[in-house]
Amino acid sequence: MGGEILTVSQMYAADRAAMDQGVPGTLLMERAGMAVAREAMQLSRGRPCPVTVLCGPGNNGGDGFVAARHLAAAGWPVRLGLLGERLALTGDAAWAASQWTGPVFPASPALLDGADLVIDALFGAGLNRALDGEALVLVQAMAAADCLLLAVDVPSGVAGDDGSILGAAALADVTVTFFRGKPAHYLYPARRQCGRLVIADIGIPESVLSAIAPAHSLNTPGLWRGAFPHPRCDGHKYNRGHALILGGPVMTGAARLAARAALRLGAGLVTLACPPTAQLAFSVSLSSLIVHPVRDAQAFARLLDDPRRNAILLGPGSGADEMLRQATLAALSSRRSGVLDADVFTAFANDLHSLCQAGLDQRWVLTPHEGEFARLFGAMPGSRLHRARSAAAESGAIILLKGPDTVIAHPDGRVRLNTNAPPDLATAGSGDVLSGLILALLAQGMDPFDAASAGAWIHGAAGQYCGRGLIADDLPEAIIPVLKQNNL
Ligand SMILES: NC(=O)C1=CN([C@@H]2O[C@H](COP(=O)(O)OP(=O)(O)OC[C@H]3O[C@@H](n4cnc5c(N)ncnc54)[C@H](OP(=O)(O)O)[C@@H]3O)[C@@H](O)[C@H]2O)[C@@H](O)CC1
Ligand SMILES: Nc1ncnc2c1ncn2[C@@H]1O[C@H](COP(=O)(O)OP(=O)(O)O)[C@@H](O)[C@H]1O
Ligand SMILES: [K+]
């Protein structure tokens, strides 16, 4: 199954396209409900246990009716509660209810008493306003219940497109969705509420995707493996790229981490330009690093006269001063590619305009965390997905918005969501390693959107490899095993 991510309206379009190709809606719902029942049986380890299915007024509820029927047929004692009137059900959901021969109780928290497993089929893609009244009470009761919870499509209360929670959503053990994942399955806070995600095949033909042309996908190696740089057997260090990093006078660790990561990921040479006062600190840190003292931004700009220095990183530990501003503007006007990180966002706070005027475009990757993002782009409304997309469109650059659910956005509207990063990566200097990884790939000529994607994924994989107790210094050392294990 591909890593495309469908918005709610795209999922409805996929349903419609499947029906247009002759797959009846009732069959889609039957398969959806069967997939839910199958997971419910697995969750209860194949041993029949008391199940409560809470069904809502739409097709999510319809899936619940189908799942209830299959569970009951397989010997699970099922109680079914419906929010709303049975006679008010329409379409496929009405059909699904007609196939259920057991009693239909009014949905109420009391139905959860004695259940070992609850199936949350209240609302899925059709949630269009914040939960309140009875619906909110039911979701709160599920959240408080001491039993296994399986969510149909999404935990009810989750907004499918942006991962926000509209009022409340219970923490599911498993969420079963259909055909493809939706943004909420990968974006916090909703991602946490989903538990383990199962994507079930319900017979929607893959071919419907070509007309839908999803702009969002999971960041998987399949997207960029073919473009991943490898050393040529007849090559030399210069055709593996020469990366240039601007270090600063005080926080030298950040640029050192980035440099180490860039060397490990295959940049042929890495030059670190720094104030003369910091030369010693950089020189003793890494023998394979070229250290170049620069007194001012003009001296830094002169390093760009050598066209072999083909990728630039500014920001980590650079110091948010006028020198960084001028060096950044010089780098942008040199028509190279590169990464802007950390102090650049402070030096250009609320001044995206100057970066754009100097030549910011899609050869550049910006890697802010939330705080840095707000510094450069101001307080934008909306989800992280929406904001990263808007910022990419506004700046013309690749935006990699860091966090547990890193969003990588291209100005043309494409978005990749990176989901392999463990929380252990939330440690000082880990972002500097990430910018060094992306820098190395840019230096080796990789397309910037792919370089950002591959860098984020390898960063996550390195985090997983190190596991608990990792510090940022460990990450560059994990690059060799990560590359080996993943045939990169
Ligand atoms: N063939 C298919 O299409 C397939 C679809 N599939 C399944 O369908 C699901 C989508 O179904 P759906 O579109 O019917 O939406 P659903 O999530 O059931 O909710 C709609 C209802 O909820 C109500 N409502 C909304 N917000 C509310 C609130 N805050 N508080 C209270 N009520 C609220 C809303 O009321 P209204 O706004 O009309 O007043 C309406 O009655 C999808 O998630 C998947 O599980 C699968 O079977 C695969 C095949
Ligand atoms: N909870 C988390 N789960 C997974 N990854 C995380 C989490 N928190 C932070 N990260 C990742 O760790 C890195 C931290 O970067 P950053 O905040 O720039 O740190 P620093 O400035 O110290 O280098 C980013 O790549 C971010 O995506
Ligand atoms: K649900």
Descriptive terms for the model:
seven-stranded parallel sheet; binds ligand NPW; Rossmann fold; 19 helices; metal ion binding; UDP-N-acetylmuramoyl-L-alanine:D-glutamate ligase; ATP-binding; binds adenosine-5'-diphosphate
Query: How many domains, as an integer?
Result: 2
Main sheet: which strands, in order across? Answer: 1-9-18-17-16-15-14-13-10-11-12
The helix-and-strand class reads: alpha/beta
Q: Ligands bound here?
A: ligand NPW, adenosine-5'-diphosphate, potassium ion
Sheet having the most strands: 11 strands, mixed
Low-confidence parts lasting 5 or more residues at pLDDT below 50? none
Strand content: 15-25%
Shape: elongated
* CATH superfamily grouping of the largest domain: Ribokinase
* β-strand number: 18
The total of helices stands at: 19
CATH topology of the largest domain: the name is UDP-N-acetylmuramoyl-L-alanine:D-glutamate ligase
Gyration radius over CA: 26 Å
- Mean pLDDT level: 97
Please identify the top-level CATH class of the largest domain. Alpha Beta
The termini sit apart by 21 Å
Shape-level CATH architecture of the largest domain: 3-Layer(aba) Sandwich
The helicity comes to 25-40%
Subunit structure: Homotetramer.
Family: In the N-terminal section; belongs to the NnrE/AIBP family.
Organism: Niveispirillum lacus
Protein name: Bifunctional NAD(P)H-hydrate repair enzyme
